[in-house]
Amino acid sequence: MQPMTIDLPAAVVAPAAQPAREDGAARSDKPVLIRLEQLTKVYTEGEQQHVVLDELNREFYRGEFVCLLGKSGSGKSTLLNLLSGIDAPTRGHVVIANGAETVRLTALSEHERTLFRRRNMGIVFQFFNLIPTLTVQENVTLPLELAGKSRGARQRAQALLDRVGLGNRLATYPDKLSGGEQQRVAIARALANDPLLILADEPTGNLDEDTGDTVLRLLLELTRDAGKTLFMATHAPEVAAQADRVLHLAHGKLVSDQAG
Ligand SMILES: Nc1ncnc2c1ncn2[C@@H]1O[C@H](COP(=O)(O)OP(=O)(O)OP(=O)(O)O)[C@@H](O)[C@H]1O
Ligand SMILES: [Mg+2]
User: Fold this and answer.
1) How far is the CA of 74 from the centre of ligand 1 (A)?
2) pLDDT means over runs of 10, the chain (260 residues)
3) How crowded is residue 48: how many other Cβ atoms within 10 Å of its Cβ?
4) Domain hosting residue 229, numbered range
5) Atom 9 of ligand 1: nearest residue by CA position
6) Ligand 2 centre distance from Cα of residue 171 (Å)
7) For residue 37, is it within any domain?
């Protein structure tokens, strides 16, 4: 099967001049991977408007490990869902620099965003979200097959599952695995397609401390070894200590953005 291609004329924009960081911090000399432009998300419930993200402008660079902190309800998952294109903003844009072309995610249809996400992103969720009817190996090969990269998929899955210590559980179904093991499969799955960007939403939030530490260490090792950009929402300050950059969300704004 050939990879599906999408025609993106409206979405592909010239790599624009980079706006200065709001906090005046020094810009990285690494290439920009993600740019938020006036990114706003408002939920309307009845008469009430709830501004969850309020005109965020920011840039994130290739290879960075960005940690997103904030109280429950501050909008961490909302921001990750806009970055992945699972959700669309009310106003503003998410721009992803995808090699030679720069794609305005917000100009894509939902279907186009799904295809873009499959090709360029790996996602690790708090509740693992493995497909229960697929084996461990099939869960990891699925993103490759969906991207039309079936050839060599089983070997790649085997290699990744070896890295996360589950190379001997290929034929096991997710319900036979512990939470930590399921999350290790999810990490292998997120990396399967060699994505530009890994998004992780409280990946250790549902694990005990020791298991969470192991999962985090693996996620960091694998993403760093592969030179990937990792964007992680978490409540754990000890995770932030390992990040290149720590953002703090409150009242719809990024109230701080510091080196980890
Ligand atoms: N579909 C929706 N409709 C209305 N409000 C929503 C919707 N999704 C999220 N919200 C609201 O947006 C706010 C931010 O939610 P979000 O899930 O992004 O927070 P969070 O920082 O990830 O919290 P947590 O740490 O608990 O996961 C919350 O007040 C939530 O109630
Ligand atoms: Mg959340």
Assistant:
1) 7
2) 43 45 56 95 94 96 94 96 96 89 91 92 93 97 92 95 94 96 95 94 91 90 91 89 94 92
3) 7
4) 63-88+109-259
5) 78
6) 31
7) no
pLDDT score of 11: 53
Residue 55 inside a domain? The answer is no
Which ligand ends up closest to the CA of 71? 1
Residues with CB under 6 A from ligand 1: 43, 45, 52, 70, 72-78
Pocket perturbation via mutation, ligand 1, pick of 39, 40, 43, 204 by most ligand atoms within 8 A of CB: 43
User: Which residue is closest in CA terms to ligand 1's atom 8?
Assistant: 78
User: What is the number of structural domains in the chain?
Assistant: 1
Query: Has residue 17 been placed in a domain?
Result: no
